[in-house]
Amino acid sequence: MQTNAVAPPKLTLPQRAVFLVLGTGCIAVAIGIFLFCRFGTDPSVTLYQGISAALRLPFTGALLLVNLPITIACLVFHRNLIGVGSVANMVLVGPLAQFLQNFLLRHWPLAGLAGRAALFAAGVVLLSVGLTMYIASNLGLPPVDTVSVMIAQHVKLQFRWVRIAQDVTAIVMGVGLGLL
Predict the structure, then answer these.
(1) Cβ proximity of 96 and 107 under 8 Å
(2) Which residues of 14-38 are buried (b: 16+ CB within 10 A; e: fewer)?
(3) pTM of the prediction?
(4) Using one digit for the tens of pLDDT, what is the confidence trace for 52-77?
(5) CA angle, residues 4, 127, 146, in degrees to nearest 5
(6) Residues contacting 19, CB < 8 A, separation 6+
(7) Are 61 and 52 in contact (CB under 8 A)?
(8) Other CB atoms within 10 A of residue 4 CB
């Protein structure tokens, strides 16, 4: 079946940079909201939270502890997977999310269930918009997302199964470390 879909226009580098900055900002704000609401997060953030709790590090420190070695490995073995977007994701998301979480803890007037649920719903929308813009910028994968790509390429498994295994491992490790 043929479709009459038209390919989207290619973005210029300045447009891609704007998408990267806005997308990364939206992702960070969404993660800060999720951390504040305490309704749950994605597998990677769960891992960062577990490391943060176990090692008594700020969220940003745990994010860097995981992503910096991955970024270095990518520079050596899979340079094509990372770019300026990878670095932006690694150094901006943690501090912005942590700042927003702390801000909300001090200033959000609706700390009850309904207020947190409304804020969480806004976070889901922001995360969706942010991820769409970040992906559209095509300026590099987030460092933690390169792990499943590298493993799938090296062990010749379908990406989806490797990604599921990575996410389950991150959740188990995050929850396990958080209980220490």
Answers:
(1) no
(2) eebbebbbebbbbbbbbbbbbbbbe
(3) 0.89
(4) 999 999 999 999 999 999 999 999 98
(5) 85
(6) 11, 133, 134, 136, 137
(7) yes
(8) 4
